[in-house]
Amino acid sequence: MLEILTAVILITAIIMAGFRRINLLTKGFRIQSLAIGLLCFALGYLSGESHYYVIGVLTLITKTVLIPHFMNRSIKELSANREMDPIINGWWSSVIAGIFIAVIYVVMEGFNSDFIIAGVVLLVTGALMLVARKKAITQMTGFLVMENGLVLLELSMIKMGLLIDILIILEVLLISAIMAIMIFYINKVFHSVNTDYLSNLKD
Amino acid sequence: MSIIYIIQSLLLIAGAPLFVGSLRRLKAVLRGYKGAPVLQPYYELMKLFSKGRVLSGNSSFITSIAPAIVLAASILLAFTVPVAYIGSDYGLGNIFVIIFLMAILKFMTVLIGLDSASAFGGMGGSRELFISMFAEPIGFLTAAFLYFEAGSFNIIEITYINSRGIAEPAAHIMAAVAFLLWIAAENTRIPVDNPETHLELTMIHEAMLLDLSGRDLAYFELSTYLKLTVSMALFVNAFIPFGIAASASGSFLLTAFVLFVVKMLIMLSMLAVTETIMAKFRLFRAPELLATSFCFALTAIAIVYLH
Amino acid sequence: MLSYLSKFFMDDFLSVFFLFIIILIAIPVSVYSTGYIKKYRNIYSGRYFWIMFGLFVLSMIGVVMSSNSISFMVFWELMSIASFFLAIYDHKNRESIKPGIYYFVLTHISGLFLMMMFGFIYKYTGSIDFTEIVHSRGMIQEPWIIFILALIGFGAKAGLLVSEGSSFCAIHKFPSMLSAMMSGVMLKVAIYGFIRVTFFLMGGVSWESGLAVMLLGTVFAIYNIINALLQNDNKKLLAYSSSENIGVIFSVIGLALVLYDLKLYEAAIMALTAGLFHSLNHGVFKSLLFTGAGSALFATGTSNMNELGGLHAKMKFTAICVFIGTAAISCIPPLNGFASESLILVSFIKSSFLLDSKKLFLVVILCGCVIMLASGAAIFAAVKAFGITYLGKARSEKAVNVREIPRSMNVGMAMLSALSILFGIFSPFIVGMISIGLSESILETKYIVQPFGYEITRVAILLFGIIILILLVSRILDKGKKPQINSTWGCGFDTSKPNMQYSGDGFSQPVARYFGRMAGYKKESKVKDTILLKQKTTDKLENNIYMKLIYFTNFLAVRVVKIHYGKIQLYVAYILVAVILSLILVINFV
Question: What transmembrane ranges does the database entry give (chain B) (predicted)?
Fold first, then answer.
């Protein structure tokens, strides 16, 4: 069960690294968060510790319901619903993501837990999305994917305090809400969410 | 080779048009219309066989031998892939031989496309080779994955070992997804090409067969059906081989056969659903899909190798 | 007598194997040449050609058989000179002089590096004899210098570092039989030298060096095949494709070096066997394809595929032979290209499984992927070369007025096609023989590589059986029905015109769009009265690295020339200064 959920998380991460349709990205993010939530429950069931359940519930509420809702709201406002010319094109970003993932697996061979590696994979693919894409909304998705990676890391590595977990998740919620509003205003001012236009601000 | 092995391959060959027919029917039902009967591909083949051949004045020796070669290669393909029974004889079924036998079909089809001096044949051929070029590394990685998993290149041995349990389910799932995308690209199915359209500008596979008729076309159609069915059987046996009969006793064989049919039906419905809900990718977007598939396969290999 | 002779000749497996390649391919190509040379009958002397051709073949035999570095170098230079004189055989044609001279310079640079390499070997071991070097190879102190010199020297000659088809090694501009010989055989002689030095004389190199060879081979393979794919000149396409195959061979030899250093001997033998077998097969099918391109050139006077097309009608036999060669290079089972290409892929997978280091594992697997991608592109290129040239309709007058081809040319090509089929069907036996020979001469044990068993033979027999069966059935089905011959559908126009077919440019357009940058692909379109489309490719490596090197050398030469004043006193002064300087050096450092 854990293995299958890990596979789902990795598959969604890879798909999100390569695809440019924004509503597909939202769907991918939703499925990924769902898998992480279920993973939390499964871990809680296996270990019998209650704080996994709390994280699971929080993840499910914020990341499968609230944040995708914000994202869908801002997508509706946008005129273009796909990434037109990313900095690294689709083919290369998938290939690079694949090579990165393999390198991560090679470098982190000492860690014997799948979640740590999957967490780092999510961090890297999220970072790749942040770097390779131009639209603010895809960058926000990349940021959220990175955050999912953090959740996976903390699930397996250190027993963080429950309070810190909750704080992190709330913070993410807040940040994504702020970003959604920001995207709305970027769109309003520049009639596009292309972050290239932000460089106009410097003079 | 034992008799059962030959019989099951013959059944696979005979059932290939049925598979395609039911796929078409299911797609029709999903789209909300009635659709042609399940046996329609057989009728089509019979009709084509009874028709006379019309050749292009520009055609060469390729047109006279290619249909036979293509059909022969696809029949041989059906014999290399196990169905419901795996004997102890490992004489055929190396996975590289299977991959490159599929390349025969591709190679000859492209040449047929160029042979009749038509404008569309070259277009289809160029696109087909372009896509299959990107699909090659995935075939390599899948073969490597199966070798890492089962320690063999022989599909029968792989089936036998995988049917007894899988060590790394996560890697297995990812490789399976990669392989499915490879099958879609090799068989020019929907995310890559739409096999139903006869709109010349969008098509790949059909464009090359535009100038064939009569029994030549029948051979090609049959080989296309066979290729799809064999790829599906390959997938079923390499990735979800549970319940396959390793001994020739009656009850085992029966359950294995029923299981095989059920698995093929599941594959068929998956194919039908994806082909109904998805649209064809643009030609230059198709490599991105294959790159994603490459990424899956590479991750699968990384996982399976490190544990 | 024999023992006396064996002092001067190597008679171990490697030499014998490459001797076999040379003789095997030289015979059909010389049969082919008897016909091809009729093209030049009224202009040049035939005797000159045959003497040089014989010298060329003999010097190659000398290289692979020589047992000491002096005779190796002598034969090596002889080979270069003979091939140069063959290259400028068509010397009244201005176009063939310049590539010939470039090539001459290139081979001498490669020869220079090799001389330095043998010098270093002599410095450390104190011997020029190969068997003695093997005994005292423990004394080699800085193997990486020798390794780098060998890589540059043999790599440049083999077309690894300098692509065949770039203007420095433009084998496509030479007479076709020479192109076939050079691509099919001479490049293999360079590979022989590399294997001889790295495996036999030095006894393997460090795995880092092996890794470098593997990566270099892989990178050049993909670079060259993309360049090949975008060419419209038949012979240039084949020349680039030769470099791709050489890249693949070097890659698998590099893998063998890595495995050998990591003491995975059986896997190393397998990889080396794959490399050797691919050398043999590439020799066969590439000389077949080059002779085919030569036939097309002979018959029509052009090798630009955009002017050809529909040659199958008037050159049926040639078309069938080239079809077999195309199928072989496209890895179609059961032909020989498939046999060796699959062996290479299998050895990549198997050896990556054996490696302990995970990083190395990843590199090996990724190299395998790139090689598979290159093989996909190779199918594309081969199909382009065959399909556009031989199938369809004639695109210009040249392809209609076809000159008749002498029978001897067809005989030569038929021999090569037969070899291509035989080496495919009986590949398990040949692979077994190569691996036994190699393991006995390197490891002194017997080890048989047979990853497929006899499956290829079985598949071949079954495939041919089923094809014959189907053809019989079709014969019965067709009884009484005559096929109707019609013109091709003209897409809505009245008749289909030749220029409605896909051209060579159009055929490879998708790849140009994805990988065009790798081959310096540029497209310009102008809309005047009609739409004008200009496309061209440039060799990036040549322009960006080698040309700059040449400019730099030129620049230096111009500066150095300034010390020439033509006054005898000045030259005496130079000599004096040089003598004093060397005296100081000798006193201080020796």
Answer: 6-23, 61-86, 92-117, 129-148, 168-185, 225-246, 252-274, 286-306
